[in-house]
Amino acid sequence: ADICPNWKIASPDPMVTVGYRCESFPVEMIVRGYLTGSSWRDYQAGARSICGVPLPDGMREHQRFDRPIVTPTTKAEIGAHDQNISKEEIVAQGLVSKEDYEKLEGYALALFDRGTKMAAERGLILVDTKYEFGKRDGEIYLIDEIHTPDSSRYFYADGYEERFAKGEPQRQLSKEFVREWLMEHGFSGKPGQQVPEMTDEFVDSVSDRYIELYEKITGERFVRDEAPDVLARIESNVRNMLARLH
Question: Cys staple from 168: which of 12, 37, 163, 246, with CB 3.0 to 4.6 Å?
């Protein structure tokens, strides 16, 4: 909250977030501290520039950048993947004004720096993440979730250097394991593909893994709620909050 305004007002129930309505910018601000994931695949294919950011020859997978880089993407149309785009293209196309973009970039880098320090306290490395921003009454707000496994990739700090030196895969915390399961079952998000049915066993394993991620990232124990009627609980909590607002 001390870095930039946040859309979130309150969370009256674990399944509910109440926030300010903002007009979202049509770009996502991706900050990368390491050459990994899609950036590594592009680099491996010969790219030496990502979103207008030049990259030197001779880099290796999972290598740390001298300083974090911002590689924005445009908000995809329905059914399409987000597209890489440079700062210059964003401004030239009128997607975001030059003044606003510079604020977005400054906020994104400051948030990433804070997230990196918080992750380090948990024995983690914040590898890359995305931030989404919107505007309300002429002011820029951070919107959507932040530094979660759905928007971020983490490495375990312990063993990073040894694994990097040997060219071994890094131990990481992210939602990648769900994506891998989907691809193993013939789904990669392409048009016409059917989402495979998840067994109760796999759903339980996903819940267990996310609980592990939650506890590692927050440093807090996850307490399961055994509410017999979740919908009734949500409605009650939201009604109580609305009553307080009035």
Answer: 163
